[in-house]
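quick q for whoever's on today - can somebody do inverse folding on this one?? i tried earlier but teh output was garbage lol. tokens:
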């Protein structure tokens, strides 16, 4: 059962929602608007380098939007 992130297009609030059997949220938790969109979640990971050192990274590290400060590609439109 995945937890997805959503943004309300009316009040611009972000919220998380536990999706059970493909049931998307009906409305914004803050303002009750029906104008909600699912966001692309950025996931992070930790891996071990060749010498056993921990190397941290995120999914957006290799993207072409290196200078973007948005928390997701949905935030900047790219």
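ok took a stab at it. sequence:
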């Amino acid at each position: 059962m995945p937890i997805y992130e959503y943004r309300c297009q009316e009040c611009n609030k972000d919220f998380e929602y536990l999706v059970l059997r493909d049931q998307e949220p009906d409305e914004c938790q803050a303002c009750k608007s029906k104008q909600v969109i699912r966001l692309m979640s950025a996931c992070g990971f930790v891996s071990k380098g060749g010498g056993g050192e921990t190397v941290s990274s995120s999914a957006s590290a290799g993207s072409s939007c290196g200078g973007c400060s948005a928390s997701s590609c949905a935030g900047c439109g790219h």
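fwiw Residues 58-63 have pLDDT under 50 and may be disordered. also The CA atoms of residues 42 and 59 lie 6 Å apart. so keep that in mind when u check it
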